[in-house]
Amino acid sequence: MKQKLPPFLGISHEKTLITTKRLYFVFALFILLVPATSALTADADEIETVTRDLCNLSRFTGSEEEAAGYIGEKMRERGLTVTVESFEVPVATYKGGGGYEVQSVLIGSNVIGVKEGKSNQTVIISAHYDTAAPELPGEVYPGADDNAAGVASMLEIARLLKDEDPDRTIYFIAFSGEDVGLFGSKRWLDAHEDRHDEIIAAVNLDCVAYGDSLRARALPQHRWLYEWLPESESITYERDFGDMSSVGDEVNFQERHLPALRMVDWGNHDIIWDTPEDRPERLNYTLAAECAGAVAGAISWVEDTGDLTPPEYAARVENGTVYYDSPEDLTYEVIVDGQNLGPCPSGSVSLPQGIHTTEVNGYDRLENPLWGPVRYVPGAHEVQIVGYDPAGNRQKIHLTAEGRDLDFPVAAKNNVGIAIWGKRSQEDIETMGLKKRVGCIHSLVYLIERPEGVAAVAGFVDGIRVANLSSENSFHLTPGNHTYGIVAYGEDGEVVGSDETTFIIRSVLGESFEFPPNNNPFYEPGPKGISSELFVGGGALVLALALIVVYRKRRG
Prior knowledge:
- The structure is a single chain.
- The two termini are 30 Å apart.
- The chain is α+β, with helices and mostly antiparallel strands.
- It has 10 helices and 29 strands.
- The protein is globular and about 65 Å long.
- It is 20% helix and 30% strand.
- It comes from Methanoculleus palmolei.
- Keywords: Membrane, Transmembrane, Transmembrane helix.
């Protein structure tokens, strides 16, 4: 149990004589106050059977009809109401001269199983069922860990919860299109935008059966989700999110400011992911069963709280600083002009005069590194404060507020050696341009050589000041140019060090699947700038399969 036992009735840890009645009273309080989170017992053999069945079915996006039917039938066996939603992935074909032209689409299918609850509050359990296609003709990629076992574990969770009568509605979604750019989850979220406010959490199972341990990954502002899961020697909880070198469908929820958690194994994925070696006989189905049992136990614990009431709190902006207070113990995240600053205590966020812009005379500033710092134009800020209680109930408050003068204080001398990790020097910027970060969620890490001289650190994100900024905090920034600065203060409040950088954010998600990738040496441009492999068989299916063959998902 990660929920710690609180001290009761002033009883110390020393040996104490307690009357029988008082002992019963203490025990009753324990039952009432400490959530009984425990893993449910999942069937490892059933997970293995479903995994092997899926590995024998075609699961390339655009050719997964049989696999979708199999998953839908398994969902119905578990009492779920099943629908299949198709979506298109535009294919941009390279035409030479650096240009792409959209010529075709891949048709993918999301399989959705719904367990209706007594309310519209919704928990999502997801796993993608599509696979990457081989890079070389004749190879077969079974996609056992990535991600047949994740789908099998999701179906096992549905089986474990089959007889439950939940307060919240539970969606079990098998996404397609993950291996061509996370398109299945993106299309589903776009099509159901009216339901976003009802989603209290999403748990994505993506590679959960290779090795002997699992990790849970969530943004700092959503790590209350860790408390849902039971204690387990096989599960670790990541505190440092880092850059998105390894991502899954959870990213699409996070980019819409929806709480999401990914369960992923610690196996050496370089050996098996997107290779013929990702075979079902290599997997640890006991580990997958532990994952399924833990997530099912988490859902049961949330249901047992019986709490569907949004928390109450007040929020205001005074002299450009955002304040909020509540009688409850809540986690807050603050979003200013679309920039998610992560978990911020009351009074730590201050707004600058003017609004950050990436445009100059109508032109976007994404490429030219010589335009200098990001500009700010007059205007009020759009502020959103989101408060979460431990059960995931949330309240949102929207404010429009003016900022104040917040000049970035540059240190006369960097006495403490504070520096932004990975910053590109001015010389490198002039030769290579601004540093580009792929993906919108990043830990903007700073390092301090002499921390003994630092009493506090403040961060400046596009001019927005975040007091007492932790180097482990993660920011969700919109695509475009951004400035990030850090300032170190000494005991008497003087500035003892500072550093600042400008960089470019590019979304990890594109609007089309580009074919062929410029970095794939196996496929040479054929007639009309299209890979010669496309002309072997002709037809829409051959085109779709050939397009998928060249895609390789970025994995860490």
